[in-house]
Amino acid sequence: MARHLITSAIPYINGIKHLGNLVGSQLPADLFARYQRGRGNEVLFLCSTDEHGTPAELAAAKAGKPVAEYCAEMHEVQARIAEGFRLSFDHFGRSSSQQNHALTQHFAAKLAENDLIREVSETQMYSHADGRYLPDRYIEGTCPNCGFDSARGDQCDNCTKQLDPVDLINPHSTISGSTDLEMRETKHLYLRQTAMKDQLDAWIDSKKDWPVLTTSIAKKWLHDGDGLQDRGITRDLDWGVPVKKGGEDWPGMEGKVFYVWFDAPIEYIACSQEWVDAGKGADWERWWRTDKGAEDVTYTQFMGKDNVPFHTLSFPSTILGSGEPWKLVDYIKSFNYLNYDGGQFSTSRGRGVFMDQALEILPADYWRWWLLSHAPESSDSEFTWENFQQSVNKDLADVLGNFVSRITKFCRSKFGEEVPAGGAFGEKEAAVIAALTERLKAYEGFMDAIEVRKAAGELRAIWVIGNEYLQDAAPWSTFKEDPETAAAQVRFGLNLIRFYAILSAPFIPDASDAMLAAMKSDDSAWPDDVAAALNALPAGHGFAVPENLFRKITDEEREEWQERFAGVRT
Ligand SMILES: [Zn+2]
Question: Rounded to whole angstroms, how far apart are CA atoms 388 and 562?
Answer without folding.
Answer: 11
